[in-house]
Each structure stands twice: as structure tokens, then as C-alpha cells.
Amino acid sequence: MLATKEKKSTPAIEHPSGDARFKLVDRALKRLHFQQDALIEVLHVAQESFGYLDEGLLIYVARQLKLPPSWVFGVATFYHFFSLEPKGEHQCIVCMGTACYVKGAGDIVACLEKEYNLKAGETTADGKFSLTEARCLGSCGLAPILILDNQTLGKETPASAAARVREALQGQAGKNGRGARPKVAADEEEFAEGETL
Ligand code: FES
Questions:
Q1: Secondary structure of residue 109 in the 3-state scheme
Q2: Whose CA is nearest to atom 1 of ligand 1?
């Protein structure tokens, strides 16, 4: 007589809150077979779904992947593209790696901090603009670099960076990086061909 096969326990894939956004995360978890080394991909989906990664969301991902929450928090805070707080409508990430720093990235940060009355890592009170610092973004040849609404801009100065941000906030550059960018067109081609983030 054949022994009855024990039912294999599968992780719970429904979040008890019923929040529909968790379904997107659950779908990614399922697609990636709950593999622990898929953590970064799952975090990307979670951030896209919720806008940022709050504590409850990170704990949920940790539980589903059976990883220590400290590990998941560590990964989420290490990478500049993850945010643990809600971000502004427009985001500017300034690279503060060595090459960018020696070429004046600190002055760009200081200029934007002054103009928008915030500190790097903060969002303006009206929720319109967030300023973030990052480690080397991998395109040191174009230092100093910043990423404004997902658009990479190289060889910036405090004045040009401030103008770019102003344009973005006024809607001229377009949210998420759509719009005219005549000044560094050549540099961007160089970036596209030779380097990646
Ligand atoms: S230091 Fe800024 S891109 Fe490398």
C-alpha cells in the first residue's frame, strides 16, 4: 500500500490587509518561486507598487522569503534606488562618490539644499521635491553626475543643476525625465554608449 504523501507547506501569499498593492508583490514572489536571491527584484516590485518601502512592507517581504528582517533592511538601505520614506513628486539624486565629489558635487548639493530649504535625504514640505545623495553611480567620466527624475545628467554645475530642477518643478522637463535636454546631449550619448549605471 502506498504511503500517503505529506502535503508540502507553501508560504502564505495573501496579505491579510487585503490591500490590492500587496497582490503585485505576491505575484512577484510567486513568479520568483520565493527564492531568497530574488530579494532585490521583489523589493523593486514592492517599491513600484507602494512608492517606497516602509517597515511593514520590508517585514512582509522578509517573512515571505524567510530572510532575517535585518538582512532585508540592510539591502533596502544599501542601494540608493530604494527609498524607505515617501519621496517628492520630483527627485534629484546627486552622486557623492569620489570623482563627483572632487568635481564639485558637494557644491551642487549645497546649492539645492539652500534653494529648496532642505537637507539631502529630505523632501520639501509641499511634497514636490526630494534631494538624495548616492554613492558612485558608475559613470565617473561624466562627473559630477546627478539623476533627476530618472534622467542622468553629467558634468553639471550648481547653477545648471539648479536650473534643471527648476525646469522639472515647473513641468518644462516633464516628470520622470521626459523633455528637452539640449545642454549635455553629447555627454548623454557618451554615457549611453560607454557606460551604464
Ligand atoms: S563618483 Fe560619481 S559616478 Fe563615480
A1: helix
A2: 97
